[in-house]
Amino acid sequence: MPNLDPRISSVTDRIIERSAPTRAAYLDLIDRQREAGTNRASLSCGNLAHGFAAALEDQPTIRGGGHMNIGIVTAYNDMLSAHQPYGRYPEQIKIFARERGATAQVAGGVPAMCDGVTQGQAGMELSLFSRDTIALSTAVALSHAMFEGALMLGICDKIVPGLLMGALRFGHLPTILVPGGPMPSGLANKEKARVRQLYAEGKASKEDLLEAESASYHSPGTCTFYGTANSNQMMMEVMGLHVPNAAFANPGTKLRQELTRAAVHRVTEIGWGGNDYRPIGRVIDEKAIVNACVGLMATGGSTNHAIHLPAIARAGGIHIDWQDFEEISEAVPLLARVYPNGSGDVNDFREAGGMPFVIRELLDAGLLHGDILTVSPNGMADYRGEPTVEGDALVWKPAPSETRDPTMLRPATDPFQPTGGMKLLAGNLGRAIIKTSAVDPERHVIEAPARVFADQDEVLQAFKAGELERDVIVVVRFQGPAANGMPELHKLTPALGVLQDRGFRVALVTDGRMSGASGKVPAAIHLYPEALHGGPIARVADGDLLRVDAVAGTIELLRAGFLDRAPAAAPAQKWGLGRELFSLFQGSSDDAERGASPLLAAMDSRG
Fold this sequence. Notes:
The protein has an 8-stranded mixed sheet with strand order 7-8-12-11-10-9-13-14. Strands 2-1-3-4 form a 4-stranded parallel sheet, with helices on both faces. A two-stranded antiparallel sheet has the order 5-6. It is an alpha/beta fold and 607 residues long. Helix 4 crosses helix 11 (254-269). It folds into 2 domains: 6-184 and 219-398, no CATH class; 422-571, IlvD/EDD C-terminal domain-like (Glucose Oxidase, domain 1). Strand 9, helix 18 (456-464) and strand 10 (472-476) form a beta-alpha-beta unit. It has helices at 6-36, 45-52, 59-64, 89-98, 115-118, 127-142, 159-168, 189-200, 206-216, 228-238, 254-269, 280-283, 286-299, 305-315, 322-331, 346-352, 354-364, 456-464, 481-484, 493-501, 583-588, 598-605; strands at 69-74, 103-109, 149-153, 175-177, 385-390, 393-398, 422-427, 430-435, 445-453, 472-476, 506-510, 523-528, 545-549, 554-557.
């Protein structure tokens, strides 16, 4: 295997050194949980009888205690297209477990909200904290101590990070993530975006828009653009938490079923009763976290992971920051262009060579840690293979030697660009992240007067009134975790895209989030300190000259003394739709660079 790139090695060493005390404490915790914690063998007769009472077919095996009992944590619901296929997985998993002499039970369910449904709606203010709710729900599910292994059924934006945060607190359990796969391709994402912009301009009707949206999102399976959900699946591959290259097989296929069977069989082989023990707390280590960051940069993945990856890492005693992201981005070339960074979707990406091609290229270029402990027997080497079904057998064939579509996927020797798709911005407005992989290079630097808003609806009203027909940097503040849960502001994308297409120099600056599908408009997001905490963004006024520079990595207000201004008053808190139930989370969340997590902030405060 090639030597690791010294830049990746340097970042990894720094993370290991920075994390040494907390990682050591974490590993001690999971070792104690394995050796002396509550487990099925230590349960009282009453505890155990309650645990297997409903498992009629598996009662004797669970009662005997000699075989693995697998806890299934599921994000199933049939309102989310991505999670609807999970409805029948538990019964299938139980059958697959019995094939190996094991048993399986649904340990619990976790909520799974859809940002696609809540974009631009009040419910979006629950979105980020749904991740921490999922982590809590995962912990409750696994707390019954009935299980020697776990399978996590989840795909989308906050769901996979939440499942991992919860599962890592049970880090002594071998755990595999089980995906459901993307829906088949429908209306091209680029065409859907075109109709959205026409609607924003008043040139398409609501019926036209609904027809385009329903032709794009048309059946069970994950949405096909490369947003946060599919970035999650990519990360599970490069971290070694899937059976190899399970991410992008479509639902309802023989291949999908056999990959699920392989995950069930494999988790029975990596338990503490055998000689190949692979607990999730050891699989997710500093090198695996770096691999996830490398994968994000190489594929132009979702900016949401600038928040989620630090939170996942902290749940395992590891500390990664945006400077690490920045240096990894400088070292890793962009190998993939998947919508919104290109024209094709994740199904096209899979056909072009997909994750096996990307992983092989990164390993051969010395950009990926190949020596991590994965759920697969031979480490990252196994993830070079494309899965296929031959007869009744699941087999993995080598990744294609050349890309099948050079407009979508390229080798490391001939990338789309020499650096990754994410950049740290720092300056007198604070620290933020910008995704550059989908932005035309001539728009990597925007200098323009500010127009300041307190929510995205105000922006759209100004757009419709023709008040933004100029070079402008739109500032949307009081959108941070403490203010209102840090909603995504993807509803702004069509309007800002229209302004940009009309020839104006346009950018967005916000202490909120932008969708994982954010595209061609430069957006400085996750800015902190947030406005509610008196951050500099609270002192920006209409007409102030701002500069967002993704080349130099700076975000500045070009006027001396502005920090002497009094901060703007926060808008009145909006309640309803359950938002008030999350007020405790808002009041205790930490900043975006640390993961914007109230749970981890509270955990750290207690040592």
